[in-house]
Amino acid sequence: MAFAAPTPGTESSEKEKQSFEPMWHVVLLDDDEHTYDYVIEMLCKLFFKTVEESYRHAVEVDSMGRTIVLTCEKEAAEFARDQIHGYGADWRMPKCKGSMSAVVEPAAG
Q1: Is residue 9 part of a domain?
Q2: What are 10-48's pLDDT values in tens digits?
Q3: What is the pTM of this model?
Q4: Residue-wise over 35-46: b if at least 16 C-beta within 10 A, else e?
Q5: Residues with Cβ within 8 Å of residue 62, at least 6 apart in sequence
Q6: 3-state DSSP: the chain helix, strand, coil percent, rounded to 5?
Q7: How far is the C-alpha of 72 from the C-alpha of 61, rounded, in Å?
Q8: Into how many domains does the chain fold?
Q9: Strand order in 66-73's β-sheet?
């Protein structure tokens, strides 16, 4: 059985292509229908953040109106955004009708 030799330069150009893929931010947006506990719980469960990290994001989204919860490649960012949108309502807030909102934005640089 014969194996074809790899084409010279193929491996390095594939690595270069991967390293230059643009990065995207997943931005969690503030609202008045979700508690800090909801934000902390969601970020811990969906993104494996610590309680301390999640609390800092909860404070930032509450005070600044938005917080970047993840920076990654576009496909993963879109999946993360969709996970946030699908997380569900905050049972702690009777007026809450659904999940928090998030958007995907290009990362600068």
Answers
A1: no
A2: 555 555 555 678 999 999 999 999 999 999 999 999 999
A3: 0.81
A4: eeebbbbbbeeb
A5: 30, 36
A6: 45, 20, 35
A7: 19
A8: 1
A9: 66-73, 23-29, 101-106
In this structure, what token pair is assigned to residue 21?
């893929």
For residue 53, the domain's CATH number is: 3.30.1390.10
Task: State the angle between helix axes of 36-47 and 51-64 in degrees (0 to 180), rounded to the nearest 10.
Answer: 130
Q: Is the four-CA dihedral 5, 9, 10, 11 of positive or negative sign? A: positive
* Within a domain: 91: yes
Range list of β-strands (E), 8-100:
23-29, 66-73
Helix and strand counts by DSSP (H, E) for the chain = 4, 3
Contact 54, 44 (CB under 8 A): yes
Structure tokens, 103: 């958007």
